[in-house]
UniProtKB/TrEMBL annotation:
Origin species: Helicoverpa armigera (Cotton bollworm)
One Pfam family in the UniProt entry: Glyco_hydro_31_2nd
Protein's UniProt name: Glycoside hydrolase family 31 N-terminal domain-containing protein
Keywords linked to the UniProt accession: Glycosidase, Hydrolase
Entry superkingdom: Eukaryota
Gene3D superfamilies recorded: Glycosidases, Golgi alpha-mannosidase II
One of the protein's GO biological processes: carbohydrate metabolic process
Amino acid sequence: MEASGDVSRGGFKVSITWHGPRDAVFTDCIDFGGSQWFAGPEQKQQYWPIQNSKLQKYSVISKEDDNAAVGERYWLNSDGMYVYVAPEVPLFVDYHNVLENHLCLIAEVADPYSTQRLSNILQYDLWFFDDPKIAHQHAVDTYLGKPTGIPDYRMIQYPIWSTWARYSREIDQDLLWSFANEIKDSGFPNAQFEIDDLWEVCYGSLFVDTRKLPDLKQLVQDIKGLGFRVAIWVHPFINKDCEPWYSEALDKGYLVLNEKGSPDTSWWNNNGSIPGYIDFTNPEAANWFSDRVRNLIETYDIDTVKFDAGESSWSPQIPVQKDLDINLHPGHIVQAYVRTVAKFGPMIEVRSGMRTQDLPIFIRMVDKDTLWDYDNGLETLITTLLSMNLNGYTLVLPDMIGGNGYNEKPSKELFIRWLQANVFMPALQYSFVPWDHDDETVEISRRYTQLHADYADTIVAAMEKSVSEGTPVNPPIWWLDPHDDDALAIADEFLLGETILAAPVVKPGAVSRDVYLPKGTWRDGNNGDIIQGPIWLKDYPAPLDVLPYFTLVE
């Protein structure tokens, strides 16, 4: 154990290191106490603060299970203490199981970590500051990093329109053209038109299925003629029945192998085949993938790409990666993939992250379900936004308005409330459309789509501050007063920068809600009233067409 400090910010550090043979298991536990706790891995049931959730010996990597696509090893509490665990630790975390009301850090050489490790280590730093805001800014500067630029402005200002939730894989040339014209005729603005799954002749070919899309090049030009830019969906897999591309990748050593030498893995589009996962830790494989994507873009004059997946758990288990410190397996492939595709510019999106906070691109929330509750529904739209921001991923792309529709299509009420919750987040994505409902839905949606566009410059300013200072784009409301106990416990409000507070309605049937405003002078965005905080506004009226939001008066 070592102790040191950061005199300039009044911080104090304790560094803990346990070394041992590979069969040793180290467990250190930290009492949650009565504090509020934040950050930790992205979750399907994204409770906030996180001491309200339970995890049992949970591997902290970027993985598909529980929507944990962002897998950072950082925890922050309301007292101004934070924990950062070194990337080479084979880390599992436990909330409330090893010890009740404790966060336990467990280092064990076990699946999904490499069995080829020669030793085991548990190494982490504890930092203590006066409040969580100072502590988080220190963590950003010391460990997490900050973005080096911002995404495309039009993606921030206007909605992305995707085929995915509305049409799933049932797309063809006529449907795409019809959908683009629907959007155009509606009068809604757009950032881009996104062709999602399934356009390939087989998964991983990056060749267009001409049975469904006989003239994609002309279609792209026609859609652009309507005022859209065009994006296309791409993933890092090749199914075994996708020939000759699978054999080429396998023969050249471009697929991830497990410790038994097998490339066989699984993903959500196996389609009766067995996929391989391109090994982005192999520079030759990464270049091969990039060249093929670039050829697709250039051949069809496509503007940008939605890059899906990337979590390390898609690798065949337990994976062997190329030319890297064995102690960084398996998470390094996440960095390798995301850094490879980030070179395609500011209009792309990714969904996975692990020590990639510096990239100037949107990182999308993993798909949300068309539900209201904490089981990956609307309530988690806000808590996931907050969690990603406090993990240093400030350029967040929320999932599609209304959710993915896997269980059922969104009701009118859920659709409108989802859009309202999304307004002061960095971007909008439609797939289900307002005119799937009635004229009132269209008019409410038009108003809130425009409200988002009106605040595009405010969003950009918050992003630029994130680039320069590492601050969250959408902080929790305690950011304005990190000693405010009420603010520290709030899970259903958030800020845009440090001037806008959004308090969306996220409960079905609700036409009012309690709103908490931290210290400061606030202007009600709906009626212009001036309100002095800190204050609880009980039963703030919020019928279906009202989004409660407030602006901090300078």
